[in-house]
């Protein structure tokens, strides 16, 4: 089983990129982030023609998450439990696909630090962690997949010193991610490649992609039931090099 995540950074403007990559990579399940489209304007028919069912939670101009699958999708949740009156963002959707629970995540960026956006990031992280506690020991496979907007270690950024005051690399963000993983989750990429610099995002500025000045922001967390089935993982870095592509590349894992 091949499961992927891809921050598409505007699905309608980059639909052809997505369809091209789907034809090339043939993932079984895909988590998408940053749809940047309202609910009614999601390109369901084009994806259906490409062989994928879909559920999604849209939002005008910002955010938005979706799960695509070759087989049937049964929706479980359209948001995390708990309320936050300050923000109403489309950042989480959860479904049952191929006997696996998939949580698709687009965690808040949190910049600038310090400030209310960073405080919201940490609150959202706590909500995710509270929900994850009930999933990590379940006797069924669970994956929490997506753009976490966190670089967990110095290996996850090309220049750690540059990001010391960035919300993506602040100690509070990294500690929140560590506490989540320490519930018993497996960080798939880091588990397979414990010592390698692996990036999933390259900024549009200063030729970051050409210089390989990247960040690892997109993660797969596997619960105890499914972690032993992890076999391989890859970043389709070349997709980031396509003209007018997203600033993220698709990332995927394969499970036995």
UniProtKB/TrEMBL annotation:
Q: Where is the active site?
A: 106, 147 (proton donor/acceptor), 248 (proton acceptor)
Cofactors (names): Mg(2+); Mn(2+)
For this protein, the record's PROSITE patterns field holds: AP_NUCLEASE_F1_1, AP_NUCLEASE_F1_4
Where does the entry annotate site (Important for catalytic activity)? 218
Pfam families referenced in this protein's UniProt entry, alphabetically = Exo_endo_phos
Keywords attached to this entry: Hydrolase, Magnesium, Manganese, Metal-binding
Record: residues binding Mg(2+) = 7, 34, 147, 149, 247-248
InterPro entries associated with the record: AP_endonuc_1, AP_endonuclease_F1_BS, Endo/exonu/phosph_ase_sf, Endo/exonuclease/phosphatase, ExoIII-like
What highest taxon heads this organism's lineage?
A: Bacteria
> Does the keyword Magnesium belong to this entry?
yes
Question: What does the record list as GO biological process?
Answer: DNA repair
Positions bearing the site annotation: Transition state stabilizer: 149
Domain Endonuclease/exonuclease/phosphatase per the UniProt entry, residue ranges: 4-248
Q: Where is this site: Interaction with DNA substrate?
A: 248
Q: What's a Gene Ontology MF term here?
A: DNA binding
Indicate whether Transmembrane appears among the record's keywords.
Answer: no
How the cofactor binds, per note? Probably binds two magnesium or manganese ions per subunit.
- State the family named in the UniProt similarity comment for this chain: Belongs to the DNA repair enzymes AP/ExoA family.
The record's listing under PANTHER family reads: EXODEOXYRIBONUCLEASE III
Protein name (database record):
Exodeoxyribonuclease III
